[in-house]
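Hi L.,

As promised, Serine hydrolase domain-containing protein:
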Amino acid sequence: MLPATENALLRRLATEQSTGRAPSLAAAVVRDGEIVFSGARGRVGDDAPTVDTQYRIGSITKSLVATLVMRLRDEGRLDLDDPLDKHLPGTRFGSITIAQLLSHTGGVTAESPGSWWERTAGGDWPALEASLTPETIKHRSGSRFHYSNVGYGVLGELVARHRGTSWFEALRREVLGPLGMSRTTPHPEPPHASGWAVHPYADLLLPEPSPDAGAMAPAGQLWSTVTDLARWTAFTGGQTGEVLHAGTLAEMRAVATVDDDGTWTSGYGLGFQLFRLNGRRLAGHSGSMPGFVACTLVDENTGTGALAFANSTSGPSIISLTIDLIAIADDQEPKLPAEWQPSDVDPNLLELTGLWHWGPKPHHMYLIPGPMLNLVPVGGGRASRFRPSGEKDEWVGLDGYYAGETLRVSRSSDGTPRSLDLVTFVFTRTPYDPAAPIPGGVDEAGWQGRRDQPSSS
């Protein structure tokens, strides 16, 4: 980036390390899948941290586990509305759905019973399952957002059952390997930062433990680096490669619940935290474990992302820092629009594009990369994108009013698209085409001018 921008970014980073009294802090800005700025302050041992220094990322682990769950869904191995009991029979909250666990709306207790799981060695799945008594359900499922680390411990076991291996081995094979995240591990590997607690009233440090969390590990076990987390930040921004369908990622980043009903500045999707601040809509996740805080976020509109780590239990405002890094980069160096280039499209889909009418209301249908269809009302209104369902002439709503609804193409005897059936709404090439199956039929007299209208007397 330009020297002035880099100086502003470094100053923001340095200010946070100093005022937050972090032993060390490392951060980066990501655009188009690449690190365009990285910086660090403080020391890890005798040296400054680098882009290859590992920090613990805490609950960012949840987004990675959620990706494994969504891959299972896309493979048809489970449905998000499935009750947990269908896949992990015998638990004390088997009626809670997989989607509710992903979005923290199942009402499950925040922390596992017993000792503070983040600072003590964790037991195996049978031990965790045995501890989950009926009292671990704190709210009616679906009634509210209630962050639950336990829920993600459960989801990790669900992944392990379906894959026949540990949740981390599945993650390494299906996500970390394909994304090139070779330095993201369940335990620290040199070079790595040590976790510290900073005394609140003196400049003193106390080492924090980092035990294996056992069955709770899917809630926050992982360590990573600036280089690796930059790849994950790019993934969150849409560069999913072969790991996940772009439509599935968009589904994960859609709002499932809000954390502050009055203002809606923070919410949660399916494995991603969501923020809406100063005109920006951000997706990603923060993380904290004893001795560490971390955050990765992407601005969904500009595609600019940022990430930050610090090896301190508290002090640095890591979410605010990450948001500010994105804002500085976008304000001082607005991202240029991507050069338009023609793309490879299926020419057979072109016949679905162009002008369609819902009753008298005109809509334009566009073909966009994916391939996806984008149905946009002329003059504004209920716009939605659609992805192929896998069945011929059938598409599924990705967002907007028609999210999750099915669009079916009806064809004439010669194969020409005649109408679109969208959740009982019928779209035709001309307003209320009498040759199409318009609900309620079309008046035989057709469209009438003033002289054609019957007298009211």
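The chain has a mean pLDDT of 94.

Thanks again for sending the construct details.

K.
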